[in-house]
Amino acid sequence: MPTDCTMPLLFDEPVPDMLWFERRLRAAGVEYIAGIDEAGRGPLAGPVVAAAVVLPPDCDLPGVTDSKKLSARRREQLFVPIRRQALAVGVGIVNAAQIDRLNILQATLVAMTQALERLKVTPGHLLVDGITPVPVSIAQQTIKQGDSRSLSIASASIIAKVVRDRMMLVYDKRYPQYGFAAHKGYGTAAHRQAIAACGPCELHRKTFAGVREYL
What is the C-alpha separation between 92 and 112, in angstroms, rounded? Predict the structure, then answer.
């Protein structure tokens, strides 16, 4: 549960700036704050990737916001200063087979837990995008639309998205018939047509509508 100093605003209430949550926590004595977000919950193929990012108090990351609001080129550009300035970055990856076995929500939470375990510092508090807490014994705050409201979460959003997109580019070379480089596994018309024509591959989430019909 959040401490008194971090009682959340109403989900639709704006915050003064992207470091509002982080400053409140630091004022309460929290040294390391990890922002957590994921990429790839919705696609028909490929992994779900989560990232945890711990930023220093004096970080300077102009332009960092929700990765969905940025072009692929801009995300790649911002990836570098985030990695350079962050005190710690952890990434968790759960593949399609695990997603099918666990379901996408549980797989996402596993990826987030992996990302936290791979940080080189232990955070005292988590800022988590969305409404579902991560199942770890660390104080945390879930923030709806957090990738547009917290710099730590936005940074994690960019890290997760860039890592996943790079993976899908590699997979495109292995399975060129699906066009992963273009749609990154999302259910575009072209991707659905390719599944219908070629059938699913090992990267496809076989419990998802749009894939299971062609098994």
Answer: 6
Q: What is the pLDDT of residues 20-44, one digit of tens each?
A: 999 999 999 999 999 999 999 999 9
Nearest residue to 130 via CA among 11, 25, 26: 11
Element (H, E) at 72: helix 72-85
* CATH number at 15-171: 3.30.420.10
Q: How crowded is residue 102: how many other Cβ atoms within 10 Å of its Cβ?
A: 16
Q: What is the pTM of this model?
A: 0.92
Q: What is the pLDDT of residue 11?
A: 42
Q: Report the pLDDT averaged over residues 160-187.
A: 98
Domain ranges of the chain: 15-171
Range 146-157 burial, b when 16+ CB lie within 10 A, else e: bbbbbbbbbbbb
63 CB burial (10 A radius; 0-12, 13-18, 19+): exposed
Q: Of 109, 139, 88, give the one whose Cα is nearest residue 37.
A: 109
